[in-house]
Design a protein that fits this description.
By secondary structure, this protein is mainly alpha-helical. It is about 80% helix and about 0% strand. The chain is built from four helices and no strands. The relative contact order is 0.13.
Length: about 150
């Protein structure tokens, strides 16, 4: 296995582990178990999602093809939609306060950041591909000597 792919896989796996830990911790806090939570626990979930996002950003930047970035973008779009659905269920409830909002919005924030970054990578690769194809159509680079 190539060294670059191994590093990419390591960051993607670390992102899944820290994101999954953040999700499970968030579910534990918001479950029916009578556990009181404060802003510090919501901040711990926020940090876990931030660590996950950083790992996914590094892993996404190491993806090499347009197809890989498109698949990653679709995965994070799906995660964003699911998080929006979870949030819409809780808005307006009597337990919806500032710490609960911070707890719910952290996953939305970081999944949208990774989604936007993957969108940027897709656009960047499409532009590069079109520039290369226009150069090959002309046969060589256009050079003007004046």
């Amino acid at each position: 296995m190539d060294r670059k792919k191994m590093v990419m896989n390591l960051f993607l796996i670390l992102g899944v582990i820290s994101g999954g830990s953040g999700f499970l911790y968030r579910m534990l806090i918001t479950s029916d178990i009578p556990v009181t939570y404060s802003i510090s626990e919501a901040l711990a979930v926020h940090v876990l999602f931030a660590l996950s996002a950083v790992c996914f950003l590094i892993g996404s930047s190491l993806l090499q093809t347009l197809k890989e970035n498109a698949v990653a973008g679709m995965c994070f779009a799906f995660i964003l939609i699911v998080n929006l659905l979870f949030l819409s269920v809780h808005i307006g409830a009597e337990y919806f306060n500032s710490s609960f909002a911070q707890l719910e919005l952290s996953s939305l924030l970081y999944s949208s950041v990774v989604l936007l970054y993957n969108g940027y990578l897709i656009i960047n690769q499409v532009v590069r591909t079109r520039q290369r194809s226009s150069y090959t159509m002309n046969g060589s680079f256009i050079r003007e000597d004046r």
